[in-house]
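This protein record is not my work; I was only asked to verify it. Take the sequence as given and treat only the tokens as open to question. I have pasted the whole thing underneath without changing anything:
***
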Amino acid sequence: MIIRLADMDRDALAIHDATKDFLTRIVPHQVMPDSDEEIMTCVGRIIDLNGVEVVVAENDSGLQGCMGMLYQPFIWNPKMMAASEVFIWTAHNSPSTTFLRMLRFVERRMEELNVRVKDFQSLTSSPKGLDKVYRKMGLMPTQTTWMGVV
């Protein structure tokens, strides 16, 4: 398996398809775009944001995972660089190590960028055990976010 920074000319369609799959698995999906055109626009807008990098995992079967990270000064202390997870997706049939391999790649990027603050999320629909991975990274739970559709 190869883990690398995405090349949008080459990877945009696969990331779009991954996003469509991701949106069927999350809660609350009601706030997400529902047409292919809206999804593609949304993905393009996120990827084009200043400071966003997308990491992809691929093998001979194609895209197995992708992870979007936002690198920017920490909002509460701009002297510190922060890394915030934007999205993480792995294919249903991806090898069990796909997420961890992308995470290791991102951790190396954080070292290169002198990141001091890391921010990762866990959805109610996230796989069980994700909190253990985040704790091993030295992260701690800091808040619960509540969302509703008006």
